[in-house]
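Entry: DUF421 domain-containing protein
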Amino acid sequence: MEHLFFSSWASIARTLIVGAAAYAGLILLLRVSGKRTLTKMNAFDLIVTVALGSTLATVLLTKSVPLADGLVAFGLLIFLQFAITWLSVRVKAVGQLVKSEPTLLVYQGQFLQAAMQAERVTEAEILAGLREKGLGSVAEAAAVVLETGGELSILKDSASGPHSVLRDVRGRPDTTVADWNSEKQ
């Protein structure tokens, strides 16, 4: 009970010194690893971000974990993140394993109920997204896509052809809404 609020000045000094050094080391490693290391792309990236935060907290507050061990752990996590993203760009199977596909939830003003159910998205969430973009009705939406990071993208104008922004979206826009809903059931 005596160490509940204060153990020693040495403990405070260690936290300050190791904390500053660990933070500086983490920032340096993140800068070296590139912009993609902590992008908000998918669940895999979130896991790495949480692991980095947990490692930083452990290095800061656990006296039995030396700074060098923490920096090696940071380096390992960042290297693994870099390796997986590098592989996912070059090997299609790795990319499919790590990343989810964007999913079409509304097409040509109609809700795609099967897709919404599969992705656990409600009409109310889509309507809120439409309001954020200034749309007054679902009929004004050419498409609503649930992106890989969980955010909704809302397209006001329909896009078609080989250069359509919907070409990589699950739920092909070249099929009818009825076809797509029956395909998912």
